[in-house]
Amino acid sequence: MRKSAWIIAIAATLIAGGTALAQDISAASDETRYLLDTALFVFAGLAAVLFVFGLGLRDVGLARTQHAPAVCLRTIGLIGVGAFAFWLVGYNLIHMVETGGFLGAFEPWRPNDVDPMAVGRASGSVWFFQMGLAAIPAAIVSSAVSERVKTWPFILFAAAMAGLIYPIAAAWVWGGGYFAEVWRTVDFGGAAVIHMSGGAAALAGALVIGPRPGRYHEHGPRPAASTALPLSAFAAGFILTAWIVVLAGKLGSLSSIEPAISLGVISANVVLAVAGAVLAALFLTQIVYHRAGLVTVINAVIAGLVAVSADPLHPALWQAAMVGAVGGVIVTVAPPFLDRFRIDDAGFVIPAHLLCGVWAMMIAPWYNPDASLPGQLIGAGAIAIFAFSLSALFWVALKYSLGVRLRSEEDVSGGVGDARISD
Fold it and tell me: Is residue 397 part of a domain?
């Protein structure tokens, strides 16, 4: 009995001490909040750039060996031209739009740190984070049109995507524009703003540019060759990790307890959504094709994080897993459907980004009372139609001015089916 009493006394002392420590936790000073929030935006910007390079690494693994250098060149080039375009016009198109309006100002971004404590973070860190987000839709398009697009026409399109198409779509929702104010469209993580706009632009590019040489014959599609699927598999892990940090940046602050708790919830929901998508893709490919498909599972990782991106904070854990599982089904069944219409999507971005983005926007009212189905439908539809239409205009203009397809002598000999590695 004496030993039990000692144990109870020690436990009570520890609990009392822990309670006292919890009560002693005080809010961070203004200087500390400034440093923490600035660091958050810098790291989130780095994660957005890593997300772009993760997509590029995945595309290197999916492409034929001869095309791998071109994939790398496009990835590096779109970061460079995207940064310039976003500096010259893109940032202020998003953040200088009138409340309920459609367009911001066509003028360059300028750092403003005259009163840093009033803003709460360095202005350059915010611009850097937003620039990283602007590069992602162009990277999505690069994946779709891989192995048949010329470098310079794509670089010009990437400038238009990062400096014009994406910023206008972002202004409508994230900048306090029309759909945010009038229709209350909810899109915390960019399911429509980033993924649907990039996926719609990718669809326009695939239609205008056409399929890869030798991809289709009279009996249907030929299996696509791949350089190194292990690269693509590990790239999926980089993409998942980077996206969670990007969502941390979307919180806007990490210098108090509430956003820290929110980040924990978001991280758990995203991981479970990805887990649901991966398991759904594994089981479905096993049932349909009698063997689990690696390429499908790789893209299920992206499908899962996109499927929950419209609102990764409010779903319960089981809801996040179910939403992600539907994303896994989408990336499994949609590619054969696209092949029926000879829409050659080399990076599987139309199912993973466009269709899963639609699913994310439509399902958000299930667990977020602030989201309504009409608001989600109209906002997402407007973004998709706008991104598709303007992208198609740019691609057609490039096609009939500079040409967008590789010349026949630049095509890889041997056909698409050589060194075949596929699901």
Answer: yes
